[in-house]
Amino acid sequence: MIVVHDLHKHFGGFRAVNGASLRIETGSITGLIGPNGAGKTTLFNVIAGRLPPTSGRVEMDGEDITGLPPHELFHKGLLRTFQIAHEFSSMTVRENLMMVPGGQSGETLWNAWFQRTRIRDEERALRQKADEVLEFLTISHLADEKAANISGGQKKLLELGRTMMVDAKIVFLDEVGAGVNRTLLNTIGDAIVRLNRERGYTFCVIEHDMDFIGRLCDPVIVMAEGQVLAQGSADQIMQNEAVIEAYLGT
Ligand code: ADP
């Protein structure tokens, strides 16, 4: 689904991404791992249109999508989860989901929201969809909670839920497990697997928790120093000497 060719992203003289090439196959849950500073987040930001590349190319289903802005990628079904923006934390969990279909930038969302309040049928349909998403994620009981009051892990589920409000094809998840307790991490993992199997979502996941990566991801791509160092199943990766060295070297 996604092919990255010889991608570079330099910050001044510093090569955060330094000639990375990789493929994300349709229907996969691809893991992206690597030591801190390997360039994983920068690579995500370039693919998701948040940073222009210095050079190189990104394709989606054979189409050149290099440098397209996030809202255009959004309409193509390429989504990157992002943290609940501060201005939405006083809204309920359900309202946060209902905001999504208008687009991803704060202003557009607000405009869409105000228009939407005038169109009752559409609002009802959105509300129903939001409630289905909450049920799928097993967090229906949080529908009327303010987003500010839910836990870090529940916020991650809400971020995942936002991708379900539109027709996502591929979802980029950045450190789903950061600061999340084991039980909730399992719930998030289950939701990812079900979205993959039942709704055909392709995922690319940056995560440090190797249990999580091993349970969910195939293949696993390892980055180090801005390049792809290795790729394979989680087991193969963990026995790869270059990979072990890259981790021990930091
Ligand atoms: P990872 O996600 O693998 O930890 P990052 O992509 O966050 O790695 O960072 C790769 C390197 O690029 C790091 O050394 C980081 O300091 C640097 N970097 C990231 N963003 C910027 C930026 N906007 N300006 C300068 N350096 C950056």
TrEMBL record:
Residues 2-250 form the ABC transporter domain. The keyword Transport applies. It comes from the Bacteria. Keywords: ATP-binding, Nucleotide-binding, Transport. GO terms for cellular component: plasma membrane. GO terms for molecular function: ATP binding; ATP hydrolysis activity. This is ABC branched-chain amino acid transporter family, ATPase subunit. It comes from Ketogulonicigenium vulgare (strain WSH-001).
